[in-house]
Write a sequence for this structure.
């Protein structure tokens, strides 16, 4: 068992390094693109927040609030689209014994975790200094929540990959759903700004819990009315089991 | 036992066609040098992929008790935009090799040390073929799989490759799947001949070659009589089939 895990670890490590070397080496499509994507969205949302002051949470620094919401969301967003793309891009590597589609997914998304993790660290530090705001009072909690963004994204991506293979238009529905989810996940607008009657429905979204809890662990005075760490854990476990089982099913029944 | 296939079934891609393999039994002992002789499109490459585990079987069992290579000289996993050294390091890492000297060793094995830091797309064509061979035989496995030829057809590299293969033969087992009888006669102790989705075992390579040649002659006769008498001789399928047999004839 340990030997098998070691073998898979070697494969995933090799694939993640290869992703960094080959894809990220090209600035236009690698780090440069990630930086451009984040910066552009950040500026857009910052303008929105400044223009519509009602979106601001009183007492919280605007830029750090956006950074702590936007980069975890970007990680989730990239991680859920990565599995299908990673398999399509690296299909030829499946001709090597020991390399499985799941390894390709893990290798590719591990590289995403490193990239966005680095950006989060730099951007959050710079914005905290700039706004003279506090650093997280529970850093471990923030790290674990950042990891859960990645896990939710990868697991959801595996489920989505199987659904789109069984029924192709499923991907289009998800695109529409995600635009709505960006607004209701607490990335820009805090849950407190939504009518209280909507909270029980919005609270089904695990990313809202993640975003709210990051703020709770980051800003000492912030309290969330819905954030629940146990719900995040439940969602991670259920989504991961569903994703891995479905991937296994498809690998056997519908080989690439 | 190194590898064992029991009652394996593999369906053809076309749903209405006969299965590629049905009730296929093959067993290869550790250290054995085994040939698999089969006509064109008889599923030799598919069989090698099933043996190394990169192609799933539809039914039956494939049991591996030792480390098996990929079909050599497979090169599809090489990244053209990366250097030879990066490609070697990547494959090494996949199999847990982090030794800094590994790229140099592989480059020497493939006689391509001068191209180690050159991007693969800028290297002469022979570099990819030699790299594919060197990587295949350079990774430590118990059983090596060769697709079509053991020695690469590169004249300048032949002598070096023969020495490498001779060394490999002394220490490890291999399977070569080919349509070229001379290849199994030169390198194999025992041979399986693929016919009608099954494999017949021959403990002696010479007997297997005689049987295979008879099979090919019979197939050629059948095909030429069909071409002479059948109204479907002008269609595309008929022409392609005759072409296949001709190619096998040339190989014989």
């Amino acid at each position: 068992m340990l030997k098998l895990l070691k073998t898979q670890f070697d494969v995933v490590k090799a694939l993640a390094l290869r992703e960094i070397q080959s894809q990220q080496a090209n600035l236009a499509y690698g780090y440069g693109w990630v930086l451009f994507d984040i910066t552009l969205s950040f500026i857009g949302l910052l303008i929105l927040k400044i223009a519509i002051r009602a979106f601001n949470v009183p007492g919280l620094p605007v830029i750090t609030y956006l950074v702590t919401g936007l980069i975890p969301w970007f990680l989730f967003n990239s991680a859920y689209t990565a599995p299908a793309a990673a398999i399509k891009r690296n299909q030829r590597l499946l001709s090597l014994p020991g390399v499985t589609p799941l390894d390709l997914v893990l290798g590719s998304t591990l590289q995403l975790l490193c990239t966005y993790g680095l950006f989060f660290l730099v951007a959050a530090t710079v914005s905290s200094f700039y706004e003279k705001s506090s650093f997280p009072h529970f850093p471990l909690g923030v790290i674990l929540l950042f990891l859960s963004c990645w896990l939710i994204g990868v697991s959801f991506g595996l489920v989505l990959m199987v659904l789109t293979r069984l029924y192709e238009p499923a991907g289009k529905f998800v695109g529409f759903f995600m635009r709505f989810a960006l607004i209701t996940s607490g990335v820009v607008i805090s849950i407190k700004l939504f009518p209280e009657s909507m909270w029980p429905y919005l609270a089904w979204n695990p990313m809202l819990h993640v975003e709210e809890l990051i703020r709770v662990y980051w800003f000492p005075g912030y309290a969330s009315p819905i954030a629940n760490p146990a719900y995040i854990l439940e969602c991670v476990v259920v989504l991961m089991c569903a994703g891995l089982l479905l991937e296994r099913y498809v690998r056997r029944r519908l080989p690439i | 036992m190194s590898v064992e296939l029991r009652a394996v079934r593999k369906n053809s891609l076309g749903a209405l066609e006969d299965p590629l393999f049905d009730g296929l039994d093959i067993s290869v002992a550790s250290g054995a040098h085994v040939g698999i002789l089969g006509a064109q499109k008889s599923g030799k490459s598919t069989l090698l992929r099933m043996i190394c585990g990169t192609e799933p079987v539809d039914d039956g069992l494939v049991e591996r008790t030792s480390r098996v290579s990929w079909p050599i000289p497979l090169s599809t996993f090489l990244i053209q935009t990366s250097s030879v050294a990066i490609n070697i390091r990547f494959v090494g890492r996949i199999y847990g090799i982090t030794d800094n000297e590994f790229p140099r060793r592989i480059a020497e094995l493939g006689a391509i040390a001068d191209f180690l830091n050159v991007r693969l797309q800028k290297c002469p064509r022979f570099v990819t073929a030699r790299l594919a061979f060197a990587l295949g035989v350079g990774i430590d496995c118990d059983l090596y799989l060769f697709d079509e030829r053991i020695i690469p057809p590169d004249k300048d590299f032949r002598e070096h490759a023969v020495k490498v293969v001779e060394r490999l033969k002394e220490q490890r087992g291999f399977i070569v799947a080919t349509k070229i009888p001379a290849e199994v006669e030169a390198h194999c102790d025992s041979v399986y001949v693929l016919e009608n989705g099954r494999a017949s075992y021959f403990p002696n390579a010479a007997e297997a070659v005689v049987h295979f040649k008879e099979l090919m002659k019979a197939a050629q006769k059948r095909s030429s009589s069909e071409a002479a008498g059948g109204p479907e001789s002008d269609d595309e399928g008929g022409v392609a089939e005759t072409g296949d047999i001709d190619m096998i004839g040339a190989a014989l």
Notes: Chain A has a mean pLDDT of 84. Residues 2-253 of chain A form one domain. Chain A touches chain B at residues 6-7, 10-11, 13-15, 17-18, 21-22, 92-99, 252, 255 (CB under 8 Å). The two ends of chain A are 27 Å apart (CA to CA).
